Amino acid sequence: MNDRKIEQFIRGVRLDMDKVESFYNVATNIDELSKEILGDFLKSYGGKSLHDVSHGESFFALIMNKFGKNGLYILDEPEAALSPIRQMSLISRMDELVKGGRQFIIATHSPILMVYPKSFIYEIKENIERVSYEESENYNITKDFLNNYKKMIHILTK
């Protein structure tokens, strides 16, 4: 697939966010199904109500317990729910799934997730452009901040 076709595909995937259910509502629906209909339904999500754990832990339970069947997984900023160590765990889980033939499309600002081997990184600015990990804006901003954090904090808090 050439870059132009990928750009058209990405633009075509945009969703009307008013129609997308929140993760909270998904967790509530799972609880209701478990109580009313299926009894053991929570076992397929790690055995706990997703409301009884943190947002990050409930999101990670979903990844660990429900991602596995053949498919294409589209994730929008999964790092919002995950600590840096959990982002690294996500890379391990993604690798297991990719080796089994699954695919991912991930919108992310996380330099941790962007480093996944054999990934294609596209930056969306005025145009959509394929870049290397080291060329990506998020990598460079994070690297500059970590290498000069005292100076950066001084500038940011003047």
Automatic annotation (TrEMBL):
It is a peripheral membrane protein. It comes from the Bacteria. This is Endonuclease GajA/Old nuclease/RecF-like AAA domain-containing protein. The keyword Ligase does not apply. It holds the Pfam family AAA_15. It is found in: Cell membrane. Keywords: Cell membrane, Ion transport, Membrane, Transport. It comes from Intestinibacter bartlettii. The lineage of its organism: Bacteria, Bacillati, Bacillota, Clostridia, Peptostreptococcales. Residues 59-113 form the Endonuclease GajA/Old nuclease/RecF-like AAA domain. One of its GO terms (cellular component) is plasma membrane. GO terms for biological process: monoatomic ion transport. InterPro entries: AAA_GajA/Old/RecF-like, P-loop_NTPase, Siderophore_ABC-ATPase. The keyword Acetylation does not apply.
